[in-house]
Design brief:
- This protein is an all-alpha fold.
- It contains 6 helices and no strands.
- It has 2 domains: 113 residues, no CATH class; 34 residues.
- This is Segregation and condensation protein A.
- Keywords: Chromosome partition.
Length: 165
């Protein structure tokens, strides 16, 4: 039986299996690059078993992730064999999962940022182009402008800004 005091979130609050997995990792303050797969898998399965309403379209994604976690966990349990005394490169079975979680985390942060920007959009007002920006500007080569010409151009800019207000 699952201890309900430790499980206080409802599954529908998550936007997908990676969101749930990322939540479990962050709530345990675990380094995303060093996931204790057995612990996370058992917590993930506990969340799934707590989910009372079973919508197969949504639940299917969560069960695919659960099976991936169980596969990674089983790879750790299997003995490693060296064939013909060749050195087998140690591939971490968690590597692909970690990459998915890192990418998901980045996109989630971007999504939250864009959501906040969208919520503040009614507050944002676009500035109409000023008259000064519509004037044709001629560029002079460096050193061919006197200080008087520069001062005159500067004051013309201020005069244009003052009349617009």
């Amino acid at each position: 039986m699952i201890d309900d005091t430790n499980l206080n979130l409802e599954l529908p609050n998550f936007s997908g299996p990676l969101d749930l997995l990322l939540h479990l990792i962050k709530s345990q303050k675990i380094d995303i690059y060093d996931i204790p797969i057995a612990k996370i898998t058992s917590q993930y399965l506990a969340y799934l078993s707590k989910w009372q309403t079973l919508d197969l379209k949504i639940a299917g994604e969560y069960f695919v992730m659960a099976s991936s976690l169980l596969k990674i966990k089983s790879q750790y349990l299997l003995p490693k064999n060296d064939f013909d005394n060749e050195i087998i490169e140690d591939d971490d079975p968690r590597e692909e999962l970690v990459e998915q979680l890192v990418q998901y985390s980045i996109f989630k942060k971007i999504s939250e940022f864009l959501d906040e920007r969208q919520k503040s959009a009614p507050i944002t007002v676009a500035k109409e182009p000023s008259v000064a920006s519509q004037k044709k500007v001629s560029l002079l080569p460096f050193g061919e402008i006197s200080s008087k010409q520069l001062a005159r151009a500067f004051f013309c800019c201020f005069a244009t800004v003052s009349t617009q207000k």
